[in-house]
Amino acid sequence: MDRRNFLKTGVAAGGAALLGGRPAPALSQGAAARTLRFVPQANLANFDPIWGTQYVVRNAAALVWDTLYGFDEELRPQRQMVESEEVSSDGLTWTFKLRSGLKFHDGSPVTSRDVVASLTRWSARDSMGLMLKALQQELVAVDDRSFRWVLKKPYPKLLMALGKNSTPMAFIMPERIARTDPFQQITEYVGSGPMRFLRNEWVPGAKAVFEKFADYQPRQEKPSWLAGGKVINIDRVEWIVMPDPATAAAALQNGEIDWWENPITDLVPTLRRNRNIRADIADPLGNVGTFRMNHLTTPFNSLKARQAVMVALSQEDYMRALVGDDDKLWKPLPGYFTPGTPLYTEEGGDVLKGPRNLDLAKRLLAESGYKGEPVPCIVAQDQPITKSQGDVTADLLKRIGFNVDFVATDWGTTGQRRAMKNPVGQGGWSMFHSWHAGADCINPAVYIAIRANGDGAWFGWPKVPEVETEVANWFDAPDLETEKAAIRRLNKAAIENVVYAPTGFFLTYQAWRSNISGIQKGPLPIFWGVTKS
Amino acid sequence: MFAYVIRRVLQTIPVMALVALFVFSLLYISPGDPAAVIAGDQATPQDVERIRASLGLDRPYLVRFGTWLWAILHGDMGTSIFTNLPVTTMIAQRIEPTLSLMALTLVLAILIAVPMGVVAAWKQGTLIDRAVMGFAVLGFSVPVFVVGYLLAYVFALELDWLPVQGYTSLSNGVLPWLENLVLPAIALGGVYIALIARITRATMLEVLQQDYIRTARAKGAGQSSILFLHALKNAAVPIVTVIGIGIALLIGGAVVTESVFAIPGLGRLTVDAILRRDYPVIQGVVLLFSFVYVLVNLLIDLAYTLFDPRIRY
């Protein structure tokens, strides 16, 4: 007896009519096959991809809003909403033409005025957008399908900025929505992407539902990540939020869900034993683990103390704590950029290779002038990635000779405390752990954590002028070889000055039922091309 | 009695005001920053600061408390920082699953625990009594999430009788509603059953020693009539009191149960809101739970008059 019959036979004696309930409408097999039930990495708590830059918001937004360009799997920006572009010989004037027939979900046509308003809002929040804004002379609609962007200085990375998949992405919204203050949430979720957001079915923390947009016109090219034809083969996608991994694993095994974005590594062997489930790497760009030190406070305001960490830190220890014994899931990272991408380099990375040198670390620490002051290590316990790294760090720092003040807290508190620049003892901190998606570590434009411009830098506020010089050189580089040369110098300077300590490169899995096909590996879950039988 | 009810309802006002002040102050001094969560990991400190200002989180304590209190007095619980939805809407979306879970648990617990306690008292010192008390110890000792996982493993994964997770609204039919709630209700009910069974047994043991029970026996009354009509009614006051107190257990347990079974109820809403520091939602839900608790206690007090006519208000 299966569950569909269990209660029915047990309670049928009483009669459904007696119980007073209306029978649930039976979902036909066809309808079930056209609905994909997906468990996302996190709760879709808000739905404004410019205001809130969490990955889960970006991932959902990619269904609803389209972009002018999209990265393919070679990390090249390809035309998406744009039909053509022209750039003047001096590189200052860009003229873009939109594809014809593009429509928003409310039926109105996509015009260049919508694009101008959307880019204006996006550029107030995005690091590349802010650079563009600083260079901008004018951004205007020429006619319904064309718009012009005039710059004061050439910006060779313009198409990359418009097509990148790091947050916030340059999504195109109707003008009336895009006029919202970029620091306020939008209240309407109308896009021109391949799926519509069903707001009336949205229960934040539990469910979000998307429906195929019948008027969407996919490109004719082969799909590749966010580029090419976004052909949707299912009528409806239901995002079901499951905070507990064990529950999600059971639901996948039981066939109650079809696709789970990020099963924890411990559960993957169990899932693989089920012949109805497939598991594979989710994102080939993976993640970079980070040990972020505060350059403003003791002891890590001393370069020698930071170097002491670098010479003793074992990336293998960190990665094994994160992913266990599955060697396919991690690799050493003697540098800062994502392995396998064009700018990856190990220049200056020897300090992270080979046997770890605890004696040298102790010597460096002594030379730094450290006198045993408490070292507050902020470790968010509710994030498995930060918790695992934090446990390794506490042990490492104690062995080097630091007086570790292990601050076990949650991610919300970490977010607040890491923003404090106070001295240690007055709410200040010494280090915290985080991680960055590999897609955000492919070049300096999207890599805020590598910046070393003091107050303008990410938490920890490193100030290393050599790094910033090479960031500027990369932006101005006319070709890939020049870009690579700048990045090699940048990597070396960042390691020598310990902008932060990379703890390794790691991958994660995704899992799905075997009746689902067309699932790609990518920097975000890609629903176009997915079918369910 | 009417005057008593009015007086008790009026007494809830200062209680709720104290709860409001306590909750607001606690959240104000607790660490955490919703602006940092909103901005995401790639945001600059300047972005976080600007979001904080746009949410009004940079204003002084008294200004924020005054604004919130004024809105509450006008029936406005505020708007979620994250979803931009009114807190009342979010609570309305989530209240049915939680009420359903609590109601089913309550009914199951009473139907199971009271007869268990009565029988244990009747068969005091026997194997049945020891089995009931053993079950009660187990119910107290095993955490809700352990029971939940075990039940899901056996009845959902192994036997495929019931779903692992989710909630189906009662409006879609009683059977689908029950399918989703049976396992969570049993998991949540364990502690509650143990509590009620123990108190029922203890009270019944005391009542069964009373003279009027001996008289009833002497007059030839049947065993079930003695147990359930004569004894249980007189043992009811402490049992009902415990049932009322246990509502707090249910509220706390619902948080865990809803997470284990992925039920989109108020418990999960509360946990999500706490983790993200969504202050208006936390304040709204805690106020609601406090109000429910005060109301349940009032109803329990009134229920005493049904079981013991000597009690007058």
Structural topology:
The complex is a heterodimer of chains A (533) and B (313).
Chain A: H1 3-12, H2 16-19, H3 29-33, E1 35-39, H4 55-64, E2 69-71, E3 77-79, E4 82-87, E5 93-98, H5 112-123, H6 127-135, E6 136-141, E7 146-151, H7 158-163, H8 175-178, E8 195-197, E9 207-212, E10 236-240, H9 245-253, E11 259-260, H10 268-272, E12 277-281, E13 287-293, H11 303-312, H12 315-323, E14 330-331, H13 358-367, E15 374-380, H14 384-400, E16 403-409, H15 411-417, E17 431-437, H16 465-476, H17 480-497, E18 501-506, E19 509-513, E20 516-517, E21 531-532
Parallel strand pairs in A: 1-10, 1-11, 15-16, 15-17
Antiparallel strand pairs in A: 2-3, 4-5, 5-7, 6-7, 8-9, 9-10, 11-19, 12-19, 13-17, 13-18, 14-18, 20-21
Chain B: H1 2-29, H2 34-39, H3 45-54, H4 61-73, H5 87-122, H6 127-141, H7 144-158, H8 174-207, H9 211-218, H10 223-260, H11 266-276, H12 279-307
Helix pairs in contact in B: 1-12, 5-6, 5-8, 5-10, 5-12, 6-8, 7-8, 7-10, 8-10, 10-11, 10-12, 11-12
